[in-house]
Amino acid sequence: MSSRHLLKVCGATTPQDVEAAAAAGADCVGLWHGVPGGPRELDPDGLAALAAAARSTGLLPVWVTFLADPAALVATARAAGAGWIQLHAYQPPAVVRALREALPASVGLVKVLHVAPGGAGCVERPLIGAYARAGTDLFLLDTATEDGRIGSTGRTLDQADVTALLPRLPRPFLLAGGLTPANRPAYEEVVAHPGFRGVDVDTAARDRVTGAFGVPEIAALARAWRHAGPAGRGLGLGPVPVAVPGPGSRPGPRSDTSQTRRIREMEPSS
Ligand SMILES: O=C(O)c1ccccc1N[C@@H]1O[C@H](COP(=O)(O)O)[C@@H](O)[C@H]1O
């Protein structure tokens, strides 16, 4: 038996984007709010409307944000009904903890770890254990460019930089950063890691002319990235064995409902 990996596509702005993602076989769709100056920024009503549209197609809506104020995050998460929240910036572990304490277990918490190119490593490396203990369900490894850009960089991570980080990750992770159907073979070692749960893509999910999500583009990503992993691995969000000891740990698998459970329950395909 083998497992199916997740495909998240990021930055939907219209119901048509959501429909394209669902039709092409994505599992999760990223919706922005609180990304200042971002070209795909949604207002709170737009976020809630597209989250509902995503749920109605069976997609898991993921709210992607740079916001760091716990009260604002909690209020928006409740109003929008996001399945997961992706903290895509340099929010400290205390923000994760505040969200974990305030939100139901059904809301998954994704913390992005930014990896700089050229062997410079992960910006948040000293905080990884603290993020896990604060309640992070899933890490997301993405590029931070030399000039400080984060999110939708279209820039790939070096497999060696990623694999150097993996022994320190006490939670499952998604991979991002300039991923395409063609560069899947460059990440064999990453895909084989027991914590790997799938990929997150913006640039390569889009029609080059219109800039909207493209069904052929997303379907090609799904074919390349979402297929079988090693036998017996599920999509659970529980702890991953790591070489790095950490003081305490959060309790075992949380009881949860709805969208997060849907991801946890995605059965391995043969
Ligand atoms: O999708 C975006 O444009 C975006 C903007 C701000 C924060 C996060 C964003 N998305 C993340 O960008 C990467 C994938 O981008 P790419 O494939 O390298 O272009 C992924 O982490 C998305 O969640």
UniProtKB/TrEMBL annotation:
<dbReference type="GO" id="GO:0016853">
    <property type="term" value="F:isomerase activity"/>
</dbReference>
<feature type="domain" description="N-(5'phosphoribosyl) anthranilate isomerase (PRAI)">
    <location>
        <begin position="8"/>
        <end position="202"/>
    </location>
</feature>
<comment type="similarity">
    <text>Belongs to the TrpF family.</text>
</comment>
<dbReference type="InterPro" id="IPR044643">
    <property type="entry name" value="TrpF_fam"/>
</dbReference>
<protein>
    <recommendedName>
        <fullName>N-(5'-phosphoribosyl)anthranilate isomerase</fullName>
        <ecNumber>5.3.1.24</ecNumber>
    </recommendedName>
</protein>
<keyword id="KW-0057">Aromatic amino acid biosynthesis</keyword>
<dbReference type="InterPro" id="IPR001240">
    <property type="entry name" value="PRAI_dom"/>
</dbReference>
<dbReference type="InterPro" id="IPR013785">
    <property type="entry name" value="Aldolase_TIM"/>
</dbReference>
<keyword id="KW-0028">Amino-acid biosynthesis</keyword>
<feature type="region of interest" description="Disordered">
    <location>
        <begin position="232"/>
        <end position="270"/>
    </location>
</feature>
<keyword id="KW-0822">Tryptophan biosynthesis</keyword>
<comment type="pathway">
    <text>Amino-acid biosynthesis; L-tryptophan biosynthesis; L-tryptophan from chorismate: step 3/5.</text>
</comment>
<dbReference type="InterPro" id="IPR011060">
    <property type="entry name" value="RibuloseP-bd_barrel"/>
</dbReference>
<dbReference type="Pfam" id="PF00697">
    <property type="entry name" value="PRAI"/>
</dbReference>
<keyword id="KW-0413">Isomerase</keyword>
